[in-house]
Amino acid sequence: xxxxxxxxxxxxxxxxxxxxxxxxxxxxxxxxxxxxxxxxxxxxxxxxxxxxxxxxxxxxxxxxxxxxxxxxxxxxxxxxxxxxxxxxxxxxxxxxxxxxxxxxxxxxxxxxxxxxxxxxxxxxxxxxxxxxxxxxxxxxxxxxxxxxxxxxxxxxxxxxxxxxxxxxxxxxxxxxxxxxxxxxxxxxxxxxxxxxxxxxxxxxxxxxxxxxxxxxxxxxxxxxxxxxxxxxxxxxxxxxxxxxxxxxxxxxxxxxxxxxxxxxxxxxxxxxxxxxxxxxxxxxxxxxxxxxxxxxxxxxxxxxxxxxxxxxxxxxxxxxxxxxxxxxxxxxxxxxxxxxxxxxxxxxxxxxxxxxxxxxxxxxxxxxxxxxxxxxxxxxxxxxxxxxxxxxxxxxxxxxxxxxxxxxxxxxxxxxxxxxxxxxxxxxxxxxxxxxxxxxxxxxxxxxxxxxxxxxxxxxxxxxxxxxxxxxxxxxxxxxxxxxxxxxxxxxxxxxxxxxxxxxxxxxxxxxxxxxxxxxxxxxxxx
Length: 527
Fold this sequence. Notes:
Blueprint: H1 10-19, H2 33-46, E1 50-56, E2 60-67, E3 73-75, H3 80-84, E4 91-93, H4 106-109, E5 116-124, E6 127-136, H5 144-190, E7 193-200, E8 206-211, H6 215-219, H7 229-236, H8 242-255, E9 259-265, E10 274-284, E11 290-298, H9 300-318, H10 320-349, H11 357-380, H12 383-386, E12 404-409, H13 413-422, E13 429-434, H14 437-447, E14 451-454, H15 463-472, E15 480-485, H16 490-499, E16 503-506, H17 514-525
Parallel strand pairs: 12-13, 12-14, 14-15, 15-16
Antiparallel strand pairs: 1-2, 1-6, 2-3, 4-5, 5-6, 7-8, 7-11, 9-10, 10-11
Helix pairs in contact: 2-5, 9-10, 9-11, 10-11, 10-13, 14-15
């Protein structure tokens, strides 16, 4: 069959068959009681010895149900059903031996000796998948009653395929939900806090719909959740804090406003209460219930960090050793927080497996809480300034592989993390970072990177001042300097290029193309 004879929706039709798992006959015979019964009905009601439900594939067609023949499939091109699927109504051949289109058809000249054929297209939505057909070994034509019966049976066959589509879609939906549930479970188990969903019913009753795996870390060991499971958590709250916590939630529910509270909990076996921070948002449902989604974090360490900050202020006057200790403590605390922030952001940006709106909202809560925690740690000590003049050095990879050093000057940690993640698996790149212009210029003089990527609006020295300083240093004058800014106005770009930049990139940056873009810039720069 040439292209002109194919149905206009051929590609979509074949795709639908593939999605239903019906592109070709199964390896093992597969009988369906409903379809087998329908072809028997068609044969007996219409008085035809042969009845088939055919599915027309790209090159062959096969029989999902058959009566009066042992054939499983046949070539598509000379088939009667290939003609049937091109129309929307009854296709009938009263005498195939006298029809030039089918006189040499294997079904006509072969053992079957088929003479009469009548078929209706089987449609699923707007697509034709195959045909319901009857055949006889003597010339004949359907009368009006037989044609109506064939239409009725064809509708029943189409209903079967519609059910098959729903079943396949349901299985796919279940698989997606299972994958999302597993993802949520893995993510929530790695989240430094408790995610929960709670439904409050009118009258004061309610139940927990979801509690993440961090429940025991936040509230201590608890029995498997029962309807009274919320009471178990409430009993762990410090008696002095529980009334304010519950009143605050009731007020937030009445006003439909976010709730946030700092409170203490008593963990079983713990010598003292520990601090927790809770935040949640209520959403009024159509049935009058209120659905809460929230996050409870262990902030006991935050209190310790605040104590460390006060100790730092006192220690700066008394001992440089204490300042060094606080610097190391702050650095060690920042490291896991950066991972939480960065990977949460990358998950929100994922296009391969998009999150459902409710899941995305929860991740945004996690990200927001982590950022606030990061700010508390940053307030403890300016680690970037403490580390000026003593950056770590990484030798080139063994075996003679060239390693290119990139210095990224950026005061937004998340932007830094995205660049680091983009080059993390590239052994040919070493990424250095500075959070302000002064630190970046000092680090460039100490490390002499091949590439400097810098924001324009930086604390202290701006990106324009940084590139002027690099061009003024004989050892760094030839460094590849690229501006990275959210300001895409022509005037700003002109000022940057006049200051000495080799290129100007605007945000948002495509991190997936970063390595290739940097390599192209290096090649153009003569490296």
